[in-house]
Design a protein that fits this description.
alpha/beta; single chain; 6 strands; 4-stranded mixed sheet
């Protein structure tokens, strides 16, 4: 998720917060090793897509911050155009979808996908789909802002993002509750949705 940032900060390029570090550690301990590593691989490819796009577009980056809801790319120097920011945001989900397609084509045995390929494709497509939601802090949210802002201005972009965030999170929350009640699963999705709710309301209180 690209974000403009000009204030001087200390530290290296990659910054990992305490909460995401604990989450990654818990995932590696509690989940089956193959599934945990597959998820981390898909997430890593997603961020590599953003970094590759920044390199191709000539965008200078300050840092890659890993937070509770994913990664934030901070841009160094002047503001970038709506077009370049849209391409920068779209690159992460695009790499997830392309890597899922490549895995489905390459990792077959007797015409059927290997279990690793099934897991990788599932995680990659889900990661791309969630990031493309028009939610504040997601790639899809910034892409919506870029399109709306270029056509109608920043105020309209902010309003569109608020509306998109609200309805997207409501849908995610309803889905998580349904899956939790019917199958006893998706607790992580439920917690994730509540975290996004908190982020949206915190943003509203600060504006």
């Amino acid at each position: 998720m690209p974000k403009k940032h000009n204030r001087k900060r200390n530290g290296g390029f990659l910054r990992v917060g305490l909460v995401p570090a604990m989450f990654i550690t818990a995932m590696l301990i509690l989940q089956p090793a193959d599934m945990a590593l597959t998820s981390l691989l898909a997430a890593g490819l997603h961020e590599c897509g953003h970094l590759a796009a920044a390199l191709l577009l000539g965008i200078r980056l300050r840092s890659l911050d890993i937070g509770p809801l994913g990664a934030t790319i901070r841009v160094r120097g002047a503001l970038i155009s709506y077009r370049n920011e849209w391409l920068l945001c779209a690159a992460g989900p695009a790499v997830n979808l392309l890597s899922a397609w490549a895995a489905s084509a390459l990792f077959r045995s007797d015409g059927e996908l290997s279990q690793w390929a099934v897991n990788f494709c599932t995680v990659s497509v889900m990661l791309a789909a969630i990031n493309l939601l028009p939610v504040d802090g997601f790639d899809g949210g910034r892409m919506l802002c870029c399109i709306t802002g270029s056509l109608f201005g920043p105020a309209a972009a902010s309003k569109a993002l608020d509306i998109g965030s609200f309805f997207s999170v409501i849908i995610l929350w309803m889905l998580s509750v349904y899956l939790l009640m019917k199958f006893g699963t998706s607790l992580s999705l439920f917690i994730f949705t509540l975290s996004v709710f908190r982020r949206i309301f915190a943003r509203s209180d600060s504006t």
